[in-house]
Write a structure and sequence with these properties.
By secondary structure, this protein is α+β, with helices and mostly antiparallel strands. The protein contains 4 helices and 3 strands, in the order αβααββα.
Length: about 90
């Protein structure tokens, strides 16, 4: 079933309530930052926890943001920038 047919036969499926609508990142300039916790950062970078903290101490990795007394997270924009600055691996 094509998307056009699905939308024309079931218009309520593609409608969202205003509270659940999300702006597309490319069209909205005032989105709140996305924070990523350690497990996501480990998965995203392929680095282990100890390597991440070593690189932070060497000022070679983005510093986390304190969310509460016992919780830190990284801004996704900081991690995306860090990743874009990495040199590609030779093959």
């Amino acid at each position: 079933m094509g998307l056009e047919l699905l939308l024309s036969t079931h218009p309520e499926r593609h409608m969202q309530t205003p509270s659940r609508q999300r702006a597309h990142p490319a069209t909205s300039g005032n989105l709140p930052p996305t924070f990523l916790r350690m497990s996501t950062v480990v998965h995203m970078t392929g680095l282990c926890r100890s390597t991440i903290y070593r690189l932070i101490a060497e000022n070679k990795f983005p510093t986390p943001v304190r969310l509460s007394d016992r919780a830190v997270a990284w801004r996704q924009t900081d991690l995306d920038r860090w990743s874009a600055e990495r040199m590609p691996a030779p093959h």
